[in-house]
Design goal:
Blueprint lengths: L5 E6 L12 E5 L4 H10 L4 E4 L2 H8 L6 E4 L11 E2 L2 H6 L6 E4 L1 H9 L5 E5 L4 H11 L2 E6 L1 E2 L2 E2 L1 H15 L4 E2 L2 H10 L11 H8 L3 H9 L7 E5 L2 E5 L6 E2 L5
Parallel strand pairs: 1-8, 1-11, 2-7, 2-8, 3-6, 4-5, 4-6
Antiparallel strand pairs: 7-12, 9-10, 12-13, 13-14
Helix pairs in contact: 5-6, 6-7
Length: about 250
Amino acid sequence: MLDSRTVAIDSVSESPVRHSAGDAIVLVDVICDTTTLVTAAALSRSVYPAASAPAALFLGRELREPLLAADEDEAWRPGFELRNSPSAVAARNDNRPLVVACGTGATLAANALFWPEVYLVCLRNLTATARHLGLRHRRVLVLDAAHDGDIRCEDRLAAARLAGALVENSFIADGLGTRETIDRWGSADVSLLSWGRSAEELRSQGRHEDLDFVLSHVDDLDVVCTFSDGRLSVAAPGEPARDVPVIA
């Protein structure tokens, strides 16, 4: 059993300390943090998740012509040009470094220094990331985001698909909760996400483009995203990560 490869699903709101033996942490926040961040990295931007709007503004001072984005309740601040929006990032034709103030940035700021290798995943790069993890790791912890203590259906689905792919690759589901999540959500249709709370929040904000983007971009990127030293890196599946080039 000591030689078994394992995968566990937990929530950012729970303590990951009980999974301290893991050698890979995977963060999931499909609407919209990790979708925005992965999309930007796949477009060869330099990408920096920030813990807060003030942290993003501070970081932006160190970059040349940064593009600052934030969640809906912070994007009004002077200095920010975008909401935390994957569709808006995908539609741009510049290559400015992107700084995103978001919950995932806060999670990384609080924990990444003490974690082993950290990956970011959304619906777009599930298969690529699962393949990469299967080649490089033995104990994987998938952490889905908690919004006011509520685990959203889109994050459960992504976590279940990722963990399920690892189980099919000889990993063992660690714990009853992980097994139940895989069984319940692993084969769920992506269209169900349009009925979730996050989808309703996007519609109430008039952000139909972002909802459509998330639902229509599934496993279309052969990209793996890791986080270290404050920014994202990208790698082809199974290969060592390489830094996204810094824009001077």
